[in-house]
Design a protein that fits this description.
The structure is a single chain. 54% of the residues lie in helices and 14% in strands. The chain is α/β, with parallel strands linked by helices and 210 residues long. A six-stranded parallel beta sheet has the order 2-1-3-4-5-6, with helices on both faces. Helix 2 runs parallel beside helix 3 and helix 7 (150-160) crosses helix 10 (195-204). The longest helix has 16 residues, at 127-142.
């Protein structure tokens, strides 16, 4: 049995969700809440598997509720269920600990599979949110290696653009020996084999355009 609580400040939304969920024999709606702290208290009392949570709530909003639930009840799953979508909002929802995010306009096709997925501890997002998540993951992969200092990244970028050590030294206002030291340190830190490999790294990580 999948135990669920529904949190929304509109009675009609809670009633509609409960009516839909209770048509499934393996779902049990163990409670409803209309504001943030009430939702936290209800979750602590009933220990549900999934919390269906709106963002716009009195007292504290859905993001704050999500953080509180994640802190107090780390094993439960949170499905953000709201009318609001933006890429920034999606990022906030994920960072607050929710592993599912669907729009109320998509409830007919997404609510039930979302609850099944979360009950099995799998994430569930609508297509737009999934696109956002994938884009964030790609950007993380493309981000320059944090092992490099700011100066080392500058040297790597200029090397990849075809500048010699002497030219880089003039651009950065340092000695050519210092440039070579930064180049060698970058190769070592990134575990690369040559300056050519360093150039390929710079292109892959968008330090320069290919």
């Amino acid at each position: 049995m999948i135990r669920i609580i529904v949190v929304d400040d509109h009675d009609v939304v809670r009633t509609g969700c409960r009516a839909l969920l209770e048509t499934y024999p393996n779902f049990e709606v163990v409670g409803e809440a209309g504001e943030g702290w009430e939702a936290v208290a209800l979750a602590i009392k009933t220990n549900p598997n999934v919390v269906v949570l709106d963002y716009y709530l009195p007292a504290i909003n859905g993001l704050e509720v999500s953080r509180e639930l994640r802190r107090r009840l780390p094993k439960i799953e949170i499905l953000m269920f709201t009318m609001h979508y933006s890429e920034h909002f999606a990022q906030e929802v994920l960072s607050a600990g929710a592993r599912g995010y669907i729009l109320k306009s998509d409830a007919t096709c997404d609510l039930i599979p979302a609850i099944y997925a979360l009950a099995a501890h799998r994430p569930y997002f609508t297509d737009r949110v999934a696109d956002t998540v994938l884009r964030q993951l790609r950007m993380k992969k493309l981000r320059p290696c944090s092992k490099l200092s700011t100066r080392q990244r500058e040297v790597v970028t200029l090397v990849a653009k075809g500048h010699s050590n002497r030219e880089i030294a003039q651009i950065l206002g340092v000695h050519p020996i210092t440039v070579e030291q930064h180049r060698a340190s970058a190769i070592r830190k990134l575990q690369l084999s040559s300056s050519a490999a360093l150039v390929r790294y710079a292109v892959r990580n968008h330090l320069v355009e290919a």
